[in-house]
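Chapter summary example.
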Amino acid sequence: MSTPHEAAQLHSRLLGWFAEEARELPWRGGATPWGVFVSEVMLQQTPVVRVEPVWHEWMRRWPTPTALAAEPPGEAVRAWGRLGYPRRALRLHAAATAMRDEHGGEVPSTEAELLTLPGVGVYTAAAVAAFAFGERTTVVDTNIRRVLARARSVQQYPAPALTRAELALAASLVPEDREESATWNVAVMELGALVCTARSPQCDACPIADLCAWRLAGRPAHEGPPRRGQAWHGTDRQARGALLAVLRESDGPVTRAALAAAVPDEVRRERCLDGLVADGLVEPLARGRFQLPGASEAGPAPERAGELPAAPEPAEERYAG
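The structure predicted for these 321 residues follows.
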């Protein structure tokens, strides 16, 4: 844990740095709570540069939860484009529907209420409560975990999964002032995204370099399990994306032959198609046709989906880079 003096130093340095260096992002300062909510879901596992144009299009098309809930869930999947992990689009649609039906078409304003929405985890609830409503809460994403691991725990990288000790450390550093607490959370996140990056930390540009335990210890190398990036080419993730691209680009159901052209490997194609059906991202129709979920032409009795499970999506973590 940090002493009150150490915490005050960190607050002063980081909040001052953020006031000067913060990026101008459309979901900051003036965005509606719904705009903040959409951004937080989109930013999980996805860099800002890819999220921003899609976010603008979503907000133009669906400026409120009710507007999105009025559309079939397949339209959310279609508009998701190539952001990756498209089940997030279904979760957004389900959350929007719950907001319309149970919260008067508004985004709930407290962390506890946000946690009752379908598909909303601890990170998203805390982030939306803080950034949309100014609630004093503890936000912990992958960037914040890395900054605090280095600055306070003398570790190059945090543990593979969030620990109680990490959460307690993060909570101990949140300023008591409600408004300042929200700014603190986003400031630490911004430092991790821009300066204290995973691969090339820019210690010379860091406003808390002289307070960083990891830097003062000589930047000791990571001693935990090796960190591996997620593969893409030749994986089921790539094949699933190719299949969904065919469906997104079609105005109606597509044939199995059209999907075969996108993924020629029959075994991989059928495995991924079964997974997409199981995940609710694709609806199977009669006569070997498929469509995005909730389209008006549902067709006769669907084919039976396969039994192979889809690969799980990663735990909820915000990229924000």
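To summarize the output: The chain has 15 helices and three strands.
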